[in-house]
């Protein structure tokens, strides 16, 4: 019998965690050679890192592929690092000392790389290869996968795989709603996916549509970089933070318009009948589950949820009884790196035969129970408790070896956000895994501009 062949799509934090645990267990001799899967990891970017790789590009890249990156310059972690810290590789281990709780993007990327370098994972990734199609062939009982070598601009011969592990992320294809009159709006309209620099908002009046993380950060970043006013428009409920005076919230925008003469501004009308003069529109309206390369019957669809339907353990694809397609990181996220890591170890245990699936009926009932509970989860507290249980369940099933429950940190973080949305990133937490107390940041978030790793480390107290 030949070893199972696995196609791993994407080398962001989720995909890299699969490679990490597989290699760790292999080196520990914990996987019998006959159970060791042969994994091919395809990544369309030129490096591992997923969204944590900053790119200046928007739209399509030099190979005509959709640009994956949604991160902008001046992006600081929106949750405390203590809530995403890997228990077996702490921030203290990586940086050799304490760092503040809310590092900029480059510092988090560096941390991820530190853990991946422990097992020299990069050579295991086939970079600049984009998966173009995945079909399941019942006659062969295999997935047939077509991949494009981007540098050579060449489709490779179709390859057969026993499993497909989809780690392509779901915060990359923007959800772009239409608002009446938007085609005639005289200013710039952009989705947060295409945002790279906040400097162009200096001196402008900005409309932000949306009421979640991207909307919150868009409002704060705009005023940090000199926007004169920001109006946030919500569909369901306002964010209701104690905003600075220059930020306000309105119900859903119903129409936008303006004057086409050079230098003239635009306006927005809201469902309460009020109007505002605006220069720019930022659509912070979230992202789509978008997997165009997956065959129709293998495609996850729907909104951004804590527990998307149809996935056993939030991971195994259930439709049509095809349980050899797995989705990692498809959840809405409070927990991030550690959730992907628990999911990855669970996946590795499954791929290596250490975890056996129950019957289809049991899997469907289990998934349904989680979906039903998620539907009842409304408040941040309930959502955090829900995701904590989800992560702990995965960790228990896969013998993760550490208690990943950091709900107390998340609850405290929510309290800080409610107290003052402009200062919550200046607060400090204690690491559950190193016991280390974080120092205050070198500069408050609302004043910090230089997001480079070099500047961050230099400005850390004690460095
Ligand atoms: P991704 O990071 O999206 O990686 C997916 C990988 O798959 C990419 O490298 C992509 O190139 C590759 N890929 C996609 N399609 C193909 C294909 N067809 N063929 C080959 N490769 C493919 N999380 C936090 O913890 N803290 C934060 O502060 C934070 N801020 C965020 C800010 C923004 C603006 C966004 C959008 C997200 C943020 N996140 C944050 C959440 C982020 O989603 C996760 O931290 C993490 O990056 C998800 O990892 P992933 O591996 O699942 O997906
Ligand atoms: P989210 O968290 O999925 O939120 C999307 C927001 O966009 C949410 O408030 C939605 O309102 C709103 N939305 C979606 N469609 C519309 C329309 N048609 N009209 C008005 N408002 C709309 O995405 P984010 O980008 O904020 O966050 C994604 C990740 O990036 C996250 O993990 C962060 O770490 C950064 P709703 O509340 O559903 O009514």
From TrEMBL:
Q: Which UniProt keywords apply?
A: FAD, Flavoprotein, Monooxygenase, NADP, Oxidoreductase
A Pfam family (short name) is FMO-like
Which InterPro entries has this protein been placed in?
FAD/NAD-bd_sf, Flavin_mOase, Flavin_mOase-like, FMO-like
- Keyword Flavoprotein appears in the UniProt entry: yes
Which cofactors?
A: FAD
Q: Name one GO molecular function term.
A: flavin adenine dinucleotide binding
Annotated EC: 1.-.-.-
The superkingdom of the source organism is Eukaryota
Q: State the family it belongs to.
A: Belongs to the FMO family.
PANTHER family attached here? Answer: DIMETHYLANILINE MONOOXYGENASE (PTHR23023)
The identity of this protein, by name, is: Flavin-containing monooxygenase
């Amino acid at each position: 019998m030949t070893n199972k062949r696995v196609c791993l799509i994407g080398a962001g934090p989720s995909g890299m965690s699969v490679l990490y645990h597989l290699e760790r267990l292999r080196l520990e001799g914990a996987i019998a050679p006959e159970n060791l899967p042969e994994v091919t990891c395809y990544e369309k970017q030129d490096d591992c890192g997923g969204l944590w790789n900053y790119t200046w590009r928007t739209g399509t890249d030099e190979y005509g592929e959709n640009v994956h990156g949604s991160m902008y310059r001046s992006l600081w972690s929106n949750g405390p690092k203590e809530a995403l810290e890997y228990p077996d590789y702490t921030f203290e281990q990586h940086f050799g000392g304490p760092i503040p709780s809310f590092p900029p993007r480059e510092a988090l990327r560096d941390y991820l790389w530190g853990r991946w370098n422990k097992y020299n994972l990069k050579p295991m990734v086939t970079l600049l290869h984009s998966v173009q199609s995945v079909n399941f062939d019942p006659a062969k009982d295999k997935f047939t996968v077509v991949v494009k070598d981007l540098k050579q601009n060449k489709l490779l011969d179709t390859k057969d795989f026993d499993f497909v592990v989809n780690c392509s992320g779901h915060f990359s294809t923007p959800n772009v709603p239409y608002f009446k009159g938007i085609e005639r709006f005289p200013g710039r309209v952009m989705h947060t996916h295409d945002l790279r620099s906040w400097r162009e908002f200096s001196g402008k009046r900005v409309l932000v549509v949306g009421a979640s993380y991207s909307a919150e950060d868009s409002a704060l970043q705009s005023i940090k970089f000199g926007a004169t006013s920001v109006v946030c428009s919500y569909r369901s409920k306002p964010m209701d933070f104690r905003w600075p005076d220059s930020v306000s919230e309105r119900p859903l925008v119903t129409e936008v318009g303006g004057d086409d003469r050079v230098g003239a501004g635009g306006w927005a009308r809201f469902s309460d009948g009020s109007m505002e003069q605006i220069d720019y529109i930022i659509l912070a309206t979230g992202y789509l589950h978008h997997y165009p390369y997956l065959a129709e019957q293998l495609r996850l669809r729907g909104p951004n949820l804590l527990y998307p339907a149809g996935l056993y353990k939030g991971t195994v694809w259930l439709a049509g009884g095809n349980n050899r397609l797995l989705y990692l990181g498809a959840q809405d996220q409070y927990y991030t790196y550690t959730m992907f890591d628990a999911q990855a170890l669970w996946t590795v245990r499954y791929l290596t035969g250490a975890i056996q699936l129950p019957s289809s009926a049991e899997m469907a009932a289990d998934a349904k129970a989680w979906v039903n509970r998620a539907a009842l989860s409304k408040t941040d507290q309930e959502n955090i408790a829900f995701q904590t249980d989800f992560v702990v369940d995965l960790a228990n099933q896969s013998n993760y070896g550490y208690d990943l429950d950091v709900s107390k940190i998340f609850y405290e973080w929510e309290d800080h956000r409610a107290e003052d949305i402009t200062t919550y990133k200046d607060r400090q937490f204690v690491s559950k895994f190193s016991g280390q107390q974080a120092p205050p940041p070198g500069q408050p978030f609302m004043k910090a501009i230089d997001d480079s790793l070099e500047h961050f480390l230099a400005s850390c107290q004690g460095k």
